[in-house]
Each structure stands twice: as C-alpha cells, then as structure tokens.
Write a structure and sequence with these properties.
alpha+beta, 17 helices, single chain, elongated, 442 residues, 7-stranded antiparallel beta sheet, 2 domains, Beta-Lactamase, Hypothetical protein af1432
Length: 442
C-alpha cells in the first residue's frame, strides 16, 4: 500500500471514529464497531465479545469490573468472568439468505482461559494474528474451535483477534475479524498495514464504547428506580422490549428502503428510548401500582394509572437531544390505539398540566400516524412481552398465542405495517426471549 493510500485509509478511519462517538446504545455500537472493523480490512466475517460476570447479572449493560493486565492474582480473579459473544457477522452466509434478512441471532459464553484464542488475547493483552486458524503452532496454548465452521459449512482461515483496552488499561472485550480478502475476493492473511489500521481503530472504538456505557448506566439507574416501584417492570422486561423494538424497526425500515445511515441512527436512539416507556410509573401511588389480582382497578384507579404516560413525558420535558425527544414521545404515546378508539390514552391533552395522582382527563384520541412511529413500535413490543410473560395478575401466554393476539389487533391497536414486520421476524423475537431466559429467570 502506498503512502497516499495509507493516508486516505486513515482519513476514512477517522471519519468512522467520529460516527461511532455519536452512537448512544452499547449494543448498537458493538455491532457497528464489528461492521466497520471488517470494512477497514475487507474481512468476510467476524465476532465481538464482551467481558461479564460468570453468574447471571441483573443488569447486563452495566460496566463490569474491568480486567486489568495479567498479574499474579489474575487467574483467580478470572474464575468469576466469562466472555459473551454479542454479535457475529458473516458475508458469505448472509448471501445465502433472502434480501433484507439478518444473520441468525446467536448468543453463547465461554470461560476466559488461554485455551481459546479470544481468552488468550484478554489474558495477554496482545493482538493474535493467524494466517490460518487450522495451522496453529503446537507451542501456542490456544487452539481453534472448528465446530461453528462445520455447522455452517464455512472455512475460517486468516484471523485477527484484538483486545479492546481503554486508556486506563481496562479490557472491555475482544474484536475478532476473519478471512481478509484482496480486491479479487481471494482470502489473504492480515498484513502489517491491516494490524496498524485495526489497532488504531480499536483504540478509538473502545473510547466510544466507554462513553456509550455512561449513557447506558444512567438509563439503567432510572430503570432500577422504576423496578423498585413496580416489580413487574423487571430489567429483563425492559431489555426485551428494547430489543424487540429495534428488530421491528429494522425490518420495517428495510421494507421502506430507509437509507442505511438514517436507519442506523434512528434504531440506535429507539433502542434506548424504548427502555424508558414506563418510567412514569415512579409517580403512581403504591396503593394502585401494587394492587393484586385480575380486574384489579376501579375506573378511577385505571384513569390514575394512565397518568404514568404523562409523568414519563414530564421527565423528558424540554428535551436537550434527539434521545430525550424520542423518550418523551415513547413514554407519552405507547398506549395510543391505531384506530383512534377510546381504548388508547392519554390522547390530545396538555401532559404538562397533568396533576400527579389525579385521573387522566378524557381527551380526543390520537389515530394512525398521528401516533409517533417510535411509540407505535414500542406498543407492539410491550404488549407482546406482557402477554408472553407471567405477571402477578396473570399467567404467561404461550409465545404462539401472543403472536396470534398481536395479529388479531392489527389495524385496531397496532399499525398493520409494523405488525407485518413483527410477524416476519418471529424467529429472532423467539431467540431474544430465549437469550434473556437463559441469563436470568423472570
């Protein structure tokens, strides 16, 4: 590569790093880091991992106690840590799917030991560059697990594994990119230029990840506050709704041919805003909020309960960012009905004048696209999750029955186009459900 080509490549990387710093959601950022890293070195596939506690944690997005560089106590310390795959990408496999489809939703964990390539990278703090993953020197403590290759009928060859280490020498995760390609699409090893570019990129990407965790931690604390007030608004429920919403939007946006950059930006903000949908319940009396049993509310109590939408919006009044604005509209409008019936609320009221603890006054309902897109999406995600999980006042519906109910409510409670998007990604929705059930029980 010529000096001019290197300079051009570095400028492109700097622009990418600027874009990464604009992303707020940690999961969206991790996926984008993997995508951009692969693009920089023209790699066919890759994965990104984060370090977590071995025992399931209640709050996944919190920054785990970071791993320090190796020392005499490291092996003992790491017995309580694991690596969790967050995203895997493979262009060869993606080409086999229908246009607009995503790769299968994957999740698994493994211990941090020198026996795995990623584990060794964490422990050593070093980049591992393998020309051929199937031809590793016997003197190396790690080996390549070919089980995924066999399952996918794929051949991993060149592999570059990079630790994501902060400026304070804390390890947040591992970036692994696979099968570099030349201009003809032929597999080649990762050369010195590739290592230079990825090393530079990984450093900046890690800083962006640190900043995203700050936003995530603030939202997490607000979720905890809401959970203390309303036990059914569990962390797992909020996370599932957030992930469902992002998947629904992505499918809908692809069908509408939304430009990629616009789609990524909106999806990033939506994923965080969706977590704020019921924060307003912190302002509802315990006498009402924790009242047990089916048919538990009187009409007046139900109208007071509806006030959580206004309280949630007030929390984000005078928004200072696009995230604040979307969180406001999600909190205020996720109970509106598509058909404009009086089942929806709070309708066309001045939410700023709502008095906490009072019934929500009757108002003209919103209808159709008067309801913000973000709120229409979260409405589907929230109802589906509430149906398919146990509550103090109801048993869990089967996933199939919950899907059928969402379909029945298409055109009434929910936007028909968004319902179609939701129904078409059933496999991914079920995978998200399974993932959270494996991390912690409801």
């Amino acid at each position: 590569m010529t000096a001019t080509e290197k300079e051009s490549k570095l400028k492109a990387i700097l622009e990418t790093e600027r874009l990464l710093n604009e992303i707020k959601d940690t999961d969206v950022l991790l996926e984008r880091i993997l995508t951009e890293a692969r693009s920089i070195v023209n790699a066919d596939a890759g994965s990104i991992y984060v370090i977590e506690d071995k025992t399931p944690v209640k709050n996944e997005d919190q920054i785990q106690e970071p791993i320090q560089p190796p020392n005499s106590e490291q092996s003992v310390y790491l017995k309580n840590k694991i690596l969790r795959i967050k995203y895997a990408q493979n262009d060869t496999q993606l080409k086999k799917l229908e246009p607009g489809s995503k790769s299968p939703y994957v999740y698994f964990t493994f211990d941090i030991t020198e026996k795995s390539i990623a584990g060794y990278t964490v422990l050593s703090g070093k980049i591992v560059n393998l020309p051929d993953a199937y031809c590793i020197d016997e003197s190396c403590p790690y080996s390549f697990n070919a089980s995924t290759d066999k399952a996918m009928n794929y051949r991993t060859k060149s592999m570059l594994t990079v630790p994501l280490i902060t400026t304070n020498n804390k390890t947040l995760g591992v970036l692994q990119i696979i099968n570099a390609q030349n201009e003809k699409g032929e597999q080649i090893p990762f050369d010195d230029d590739a290592i230079l570019f990825i090393n530079h990129f990984a450093s900046s990407a890690t800083q962006a990840l640190e900043h995203a965790y700050l936003t995530s931690n603030m939202i997490m604390r607000m979720q905890r506050m809401a959970e203390y007030r309303d036990p059914k608004e569990t962390y797992q429920h909020v996370q599932r709704v957030s992930e469902f919403a992002k998947e629904i939007y992505d499918k809908w946006a692809i069908s509408k041919h939304i430009p990629k950059e616009e789609m990524q930006k909106y999806g990033d903000i939506l994923k965080i805003a969706a977590k704020c949908h019921d924060l307003g319940k912190v302002g509802v009396s315990d006498v009402i909020l924790k009242k047990p049993g089916p048919g538990r509310f009187t009409e007046e109590e139900r109208n007071i309960m509806k006030g959580h939408t206004c309280i949630g919006a007030i929390l984000f009044t005078e928004p200072e960012s696009e995230l604040d604005s979307m969180a406001l509209e999600v909190a205020l409008r996720h109970h509106e009905w598509w058909d404009g019936s009086e089942n929806g609320y709070p309708g066309k009221i001045n939410y700023n004048q709502y008095v906490t603890g009072e019934p929500v006054p009757k108002a003209e309902p919103l209808k159709g696209t008067e309801i913000p897109l973000s709120a229409r999406i979260v409405a589907i995600a929230d109802v589906f999750d509430a149906l398919s999980h146990k509550r103090v006042y109801k048993s869990a519906w089967s996933v199939d029955d919950a899907f059928i109910e969402i379909q029945k409510l298409s055109g009434r409670q929910f936007d028909p186009e968004l319902v179609l998007a939701f129904l078409s990604i059933k496999e991914r929705i079920c995978a998200i459900n399974s993932r959270w059930e494996s991390k912690a029980g409801d």
